[in-house]
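Changelog excerpt

This revision adds worked examples to the README so contributors can see how folded entries look when concatenated. The first example is reproduced verbatim below.
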Amino acid sequence: MAKRKSKSNGSEAPGWEGIYSGFILIMLCFFIMLCSFSKVAPNKMNKFVRSFVNSVDMFSGGFGFQSGKETSDTMSETVGLEEGLAPIIRQFVQMRDEFGLQKEVEYAISTEGLVLQVSDSALFDRGVTEISPKAFPFLNKIAHIISKSTHAVRIEGHADNLPIHTEKTPSNWDLSTARAVNVLRYLIDKGKCSPNKLSAAGFGEFQPIFPNDTPEHRAKNRRVEFVFSPDE
């Protein structure tokens, strides 16, 4: 019986060990890059992940996913939200720089939409629910952005874990809720925003973004968030 001739032209294709080792090295590099970022904006992280995946794709056909109700690609959803909310992000960054509030105002992208995080010090005096007059120009700008957009906006009040016991605000629940409602009322009464797309909620100290272990972290947790929901 004649032996079958090899079609490798003198070179053998790499075995599964070589492919597996290459894949492990690529994943190792990927996680080293992720760990090197102590703090990075979500939009920059999304761009990095997309760029990395495209550059190291070892399969000629690329990656493919079957569509279906059970399939959920959170990264794709987040990237899509970022692109759809880009005009609001640009206006927001310009407004933040105009008022010199780079340390007090930040934004993030999540599957819920665009979240504008505003430190309580930019809107209120310590421990009170009435909006500070110094915050009126800033809120007027936010009202202008909201009125020109098609997005529903939820205003959320958040507090740190230090207890508060006053006649008007016996707890952090009352403090955070009253602040959110007062901001909502200002946007409607002074900013002429449509009440149909606004809502308010207070979460007290129960949704911190940092541990309440230092004064700096507690200051970060005392905030008002404007959540721009994605359009249907």
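The second example, added in the same revision:
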Amino acid sequence: MNVASHQKAALDLILQRRSVSRFVEGQLPTAEQLELVLRAAVTVPDHGSLQPYRFVVSQGEGRTRFGDALAAAGLEANPGLPPGIADKLRKKAFAAPTQILLIASPREGMKIPEWEQVVTASCTGYAIALAAFALGLGAIWKSAPIMDGVALREVLDLRAGERLLGWVNLGTPTEPTEARVDSAPVVTRL
């Protein structure tokens, strides 16, 4: 394959990628797929090569721990939270067989500002989703209204200055997604 073919294949991959919200339960990504997705995540633009991020992979029993921590965070933020809402938060951890939790871990005392480090950490979610698509997996970035609390900090081992940005649900899609690309509605030209 020549350079032009590689470029076209890469561009086609980017243009065809779509978020997937329904996954085949129990069909985990293989260890090799998961490793490739995580390797892709660390290729994001990173001023200063700080790697101001880290990941927590949630599968199996880990989903229960993550879901319980999400529900606990909701109850901590709002002690009067109805049980049904706490259960909805808990169920977010079971929307896919695997979640890759994205944690911003900015480095203090660096010339690169914190906001730029958080942007770098955020880019990892897109790299994960793109790599998942390239491997025939489905992926979607998710979050919750409450992303901090004692239980979440504990289960994710969050250190001072770190924060959960969201997570990428990952697995085998239940149905194909339809590609649609139109940049016109979001582009202004000067």
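Reviewer comment on example two: The chain has a mean pLDDT of 93. The chain has six helices and four strands.
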